[in-house]
From TrEMBL:
It comes from Marimonas arenosa. This is Aminotransferase class V-fold PLP-dependent enzyme. Substrate binds at R353. Residues 51-313 form the Aminotransferase class V domain. Gene3D superfamilies: Aspartate Aminotransferase, domain 1, Type I PLP-dependent aspartate aminotransferase-like (Major domain).
Length: 398
């Protein structure tokens, strides 16, 4: 007997679940890209994107995944031999730093490992040591999707200011935007990057870069910026073509319009609160399971856990068996562990991740947890009791 008929749930940290509204909006004939509805629709996206990022600054859209958004942001502020400081947590900070090195930048890396948040004091020290004020920007990951650590961006801004350093603060919000609280202007973030396929609920393909006037000044002093990545024409298009430096990502724009309508209708504060509540339910269940078995949350301190993604360790042989079981028998796909062990080390299979970003509600969270509990029973994985009850208590407290 199979139990996986019915709608599947892709609970990986992106691409996330796409709402019917988004899918329906995209299901249409190609629009005219030269005039009419598509132009009006594109203009209308900008203020709503800024609302999601909580900024009065500028918003630009690239046809790209998150890696493209990384490069877009860097290409506007850092050229060959420019210095950047990256306090890296988990895997994704290293990825952005490598992208910067590919552009010729000189990156100073402070590595905080795979299970801890960055420490703003260490960043302050590094900035104080930069007597000639050569570091152009501090680049950091808000939520690292591999370790599921949540970093303190406002604390990072305070560290930069305490050091009296002019460096820009650039944040990778690809995993967090629309899930974990993020307030670009209030927190003093100068550049933020995001992508369509996580909290924004749209298929992969749109990279978003937000920047303020301080960052725009740095861009103006660059000797040259690649035409495609240059954010100036995109943020201030005189003709429609400049929004995308070529053909518009037509269907993604319809999808994004539908997603932003949903975000506006729910409101960003309630969206953050919903993610918070779901995350607490997941943490409560995982902590209960851990009482009687090998499951552990990767980030021990709740204050440093993301509300969008949860990284877990269960060891071998349980990890791969669990993921296979829920996929085959429950219609549920869990995320693989990423960057939590050295490449090629088989123990990496003992890690897995739960994506709980975007279009997710309480019954999906309970289904996710119930699916895992069922696999534990089926596979005889030792686990503590009362996990679903503990999750229910969190969700009931609305
Ligand atoms: C997903 C993600 C990326 C990479 O995005 P792609 O679309 O896969 O290129 C970068 N940073 C973070 C924090 C992410 O979650």
């Amino acid at each position: 007997m199979g139990l996986s008929g019915g709608r599947e749930y892709l609970a990986i940290p992106g691409p996330s679940v796409m709402p019917e509204e988004v899918l329906r909006a995209m299901h249409r004939a190609a629009p005219n890209i030269y005039e009419g509805e598509l132009h009006e629709l594109t203009h209308s996206l900008i203020p709503d994107l800024k609302y999601v990022a909580q900024t009065e600054g500028h918003a630009t859209i690239y046809i790209a995944n998150g890696h493209g958004a990384w490069e877009a942001a860097l290409a506007n502020v850092a050229g060959p031999d420019d210095r950047l400081l990256m306090p890296a947590t988990g895997r994704f900070g290293h990825g952005w730093a490598e992208m910067a090195e590919g552009l010729g930048a000189d990156v100073e890396l402070i590595d905080f490992g795979r299970a801890a948040p960055l420490d703003p004091d260490r960043v302050e020290e590094a900035l104080r040591a930069d007597k000639d004020r050569k570091i152009k920007a501090v680049i950091a990951t808000h939520v690292d999707t591999s370790s599921s650590v949540l970093n303190d961006m406002a604390g990072l801004r305070a560290a930069i200011d305490a050091a009296g350093h002019p460096a820009l603060l650039m944040a990778d919000c690809i995993a967090s935007m629309g899930c974990d609280r993020f307030e670009m202007d209030a927190w003093g973030v100068d550049v933020a990057v995001a992508a369509s396929q996580k909290g924004l609920m749209v298929p992969p393909g749109l990279g978003l870069v937000f920047f303020n006037d301080r960052a725009a000044e740095v861009r103006k002093n660059m000797q040259r910026v690649s035409r495609y990545w240059d954010w100036l024409p995109r943020a201030n298009p005189e003709i429609y073509y400049q929004y995308f430096g070529g053909t518009a990502p037509t269907h993604h724009l319809y999808g994004l319009r539908a997603a932003l309508d949903m975000i506006r209708a729910e409101g960003i504060e309630p969206i953050w609160a919903r993610h918070e509540r779901h995350a607490r339910a997941i943490w409560a269940a995982c902590e209960a399971w851990g009482q009687g078995g090998p499951l552990r949350l990767n980030i021990a301190d709740r204050a440093h856990r993301s509300r969008a993604v949860t990284s877990l360790r269960i060891g071998l042989p349980h990890g791969p068996r669990l993921r296979k079981w829920v996929e085959k028998h429950a219609g549920l796909t869990l995320g693989i562990g990423l960057g939590m062990s050295e490449e090629g080390d088989p123990s990496g299979g003992g890690f897995f991740r739960l994506g709980h970003m975007g279009h997710v509600n309480a019954q999906m969270i309970m289904g996710l947890l119930g699916g895992i509990e069922t696999a534990f029973v089926a596979l005889d994985v030792p686990h503590g009791k009362g996990a679903l009850e503990a999750a229910a208590v969190e969700l009931a407290a609305v």
